[in-house]
Design a protein that fits this description.
mainly alpha, two-stranded antiparallel sheet, 7 helices, 2 strands
């Protein structure tokens, strides 16, 4: 088995500082949900994650706010590969959707656990720049492209 990291790549770039502020805002919204059990925060996250996961970040209120904060703080741009952040947005979309589904069923304790997981992932990105999506991607790749993976190894 290969021991190097496998992460999605693309020709697009994003500002790492903006991505980290996105994650911090996500943590704050999730904390608001956990404290108040207000579903509107999660609905907002679903819409925002959807916009970021399909390439419409310019319409994402979180991304716009993050860009403005980074600009206001005069933080120097640091561009990185966009694909891991798009994958992270898709994972965030799935987890946010699961939170809404678990509220509707109703499994409120499950929704809090999922919110905690998403919050942990976002906190790791925001505080330490640790992209959990890059750690999950090799397993997703093996599952989705099992035949390609077997022929590669």
């Amino acid at each position: 088995m290969k021991t190097y990291a496998l992460c999605p790549i693309s020709d697009k770039k994003v500002n790492e500082h903006v991505a980290r502020v996105n994650a911090i805002i996500t943590v704050l919204l999730l904390l608001g949900f956990i404290v108040t059990h207000n579903i509107y925060a999660i609905v907002f996250l679903v819409i925002d994650f959807f916009l970021r996961s399909v390439g419409f970040s310019k319409y994402s209120l979180i991304a716009i706010s993050s860009q403005n904060m980074v600009k206001w703080l005069h933080v120097k741009d640091h561009f990185i590969n966009a694909a891991p952040k798009v994958l992270a947005a898709r994972i965030g979309l799935i987890l946010s959707g699961l939170i809404i589904l678990s509220i509707m069923i109703p499994f409120s304790s499950v929704s809090l656990v999922i919110a905690g997981i998403l919050g942990l992932f976002s906190f790791l990105e925001g505080a330490f720049g640790f992209c959990v999506a890059c750690e999950i991607y090799p397993y997703m790749y093996r599952f989705l492209y099992a035949d390609d993976y077997k022929s590669y190894n």
